[in-house]
């Protein structure tokens, strides 16, 4: 397989992962009246894609072989302006492993936030924290989406 | 008539008296009632310490009582107020009377009404101005606000209370203003006036919409010392209280609360409960404000009543324990009050729990402290009664080693550094005050150095959590500093070091850059201010490159050098680095590096040098134990142990030619012996502990056993003689972190994956 094909497949895999994780539309979870208050950051038209990537994007990673997991959130249809995103990673036993917080300004109603979750040398690696994890994404204090990722041996 | 203005201190108190008359579950009226009677009085000093006003209260009605007083000494306090013989609690009442202070409380006036007195008793003779309003119907308090302004110029002719928020579309706003200068305040726009005199005016307004409001008056002339109060009343809240269940004490700093929601209720009626708590056997008196959502650690009411727990509808139990916002002391009595909250955050009247006293000890367990995220790093006792805690929630904490009570309330700016510093995954490095060269802490405070998830090194005061300095971002690609900083102390270093680095301690870390396996650096930082002393591989052009550093360096004072271990970029790069600590400036020529002969050359655990500084030990990602001759930088030998190594190795000099090495890997805890004559490892024992933490000696220098945390919720004590072990269940189902043995107090301190830290009696 030549490099260009590998690259294309890699990108396709990444894109597929993103599409699978695209919110089906947060409108169903949010009543229009919330939007009417003018205070809600998540609008019926807001979409959020969450991807977990290292060399390529996946939802499953080895605790022993992975170096870092890049957690990317891509927002579409956001209210323009300043926002705060909190990403809460939860262990299979329900404990909060770590939270990341980022302030960002949404321009043209879109934004990307990336956090690096160290795996090599971390407690994930050294203590073998395997199983299904959850990543809960909050925008301005409001839960926008919960995605799952898996750590394996 | 003018009251004297010689007195500087004028104080205001307000009493709110609510008639309850039995159960609260009946339907709420749509209006809170109307004002049916107003009383006022002015009583001068010489009237004694008790000032009374006669009232005739209709059963079921509510009284709102307001008083401004002052005394020649300016020190009189309001002690008690009674209505018809019943003691009342204060909504606003200063305990002393300095300018601008007031306090408040509410009291349920469970009375059948009738003729009698409302009496205020002070600590000394005072002059008082009193207003009393009787409101028809059973009502509750929205909130109050008091705007004390003493001897300040009046602005824009307005006399305004502080803002208060109301959440309902019906209610009654009462306004009071009193002054000592004898100026008559006019009623505010939109208010109905009820009483006006040269010293006190009373008004009201119906509240038809939710939002922020205030009581306002206007003044035709200058007020000297005055005060304005707003009180918002609402129809009786029909919300029912939760029901208390068993209250128990699992440990000296933990109280387990159980409760039930009102029978027949569901989540459409109630969103959950709010629980407040105080020391002692008197129930908390603070009242949560309707429409306001509270978090743990916030206070409700005037007296600092702490919210210990907001819980969802489906929750029926929770543990209250030491944490960033809560303190539970051993051998101390506590009482709680629980309120239901509806979806609009309207609260029930509240029901008190029975009192409970925490034990002074809890069997094997002492104190606990709950952090906000997984905490598997080894805690770090400072030796001065404090334990420093890293962790995954972006905060450095310090707690008492005796009680677990926090030394400061951590926040992004205390124990943090602004926004989010990221995880602290290794044991904080403590430098005692008597040894540090940091000018702010030398002989004053211990210094804590940590590497943080945002790629910096930070120095904090151990006692206050105040950040002393932060380095620049040392990593790239969003990488972190994973290992604890190692510090070469000026006081303990030789003349060569002191000549090179006058006069500071050297803080050394390696980077964990994200997205590259070749561009990492080693930094030497000035321990006094965080400036860069040397930057090894600054140009990132060393060939071969340098992969991730994931653990703490090991400083060899004898040779003024530091050992670091790293990943190996798939085995293509050296993973052991031996760097001089006398470097300065930018260093882009290679220091001695070692390429390991093992199959897996990655090293994620720190190196350890033996007591004689003759051999360095490390373990590779493939589970190989390696010995390196420190004089020649040559690998002496290696031996397969198996599994993925965890944390630092324990090394102990067994005799003139042998070292014991105890190492944890994913397969268990292992002991091996290295013979420096034969340059070989020999077998010891293997203890099958599931995914253990790094080991720590139980005591030193006896080293008869080691402790490790297991991934099965147990703490293990393993005999160094034969590997046999005993266990203590710490938190079933959780991963137990790397323990610390506090030799001074004979305690084990350890965290777990839930974020809880435990003090455990040595066993």
Keywords:
heterodimer; A: 153 residues; alpha+beta; Immunoglobulin-like; 5-stranded mixed beta sheet; 3-stranded antiparallel beta sheet; disordered N terminus; B: 763 residues; mainly beta; 6-stranded mixed beta sheet; 6-stranded antiparallel beta sheet; 1 helix
In terms of topology, how is this protein built?
The complex is a heterodimer of chains A (153) and B (763).
Chain A: H1 3-21, H2 32-36, E1 47-53, E2 60-62, E3 68-76, E4 81-90, E5 96-106, E6 110-118, H3 123-126, E7 131-139, E8 142-152
Chain B: E1 10-18, E2 35-43, E3 50-57, E4 62-70, E5 78-83, E6 86-88, E7 90-92, E8 107-108, E9 114-122, E10 127-135, E11 139-150, E12 158-160, E13 164-166, E14 171-179, E15 186-187, E16 192-196, E17 200-207, E18 211-213, E19 216-218, E20 225-235, E21 243-251, E22 254-260, E23 272-279, E24 299-300, E25 305-312, E26 317-321, E27 333-341, E28 351-352, E29 356-357, E30 365-370, E31 380-381, E32 386-389, E33 397-400, E34 429-431, E35 447-451, E36 457-461, E37 467-470, E38 486-488, H1 495-500, E39 506-510, E40 522-526, E41 532-536, E42 554-556, E43 561-565, E44 576-580, E45 585-587, E46 593-594, E47 608-609, E48 615-619, E49 624-629, E50 634-640, E51 645-653, E52 658-665, E53 668-675, E54 680-687, E55 696-697, E56 705-709, E57 714-719, E58 725-729, E59 740-742, E60 747-751, E61 756-761
Parallel strand pairs in B: 1-8, 41-45
Antiparallel strand pairs in B: 1-4, 1-7, 2-10, 3-9, 4-10, 5-6, 5-9, 11-20, 12-19, 13-18, 14-17, 14-20, 15-19, 16-17, 21-22, 22-26, 23-25, 23-27, 24-25, 27-28, 27-29, 30-61, 31-32, 32-33, 34-35, 35-36, 36-37, 38-39, 39-40, 40-41, 42-43, 43-44, 44-46, 47-48, 48-49, 49-50, 51-52, 52-53, 53-54, 55-56, ...
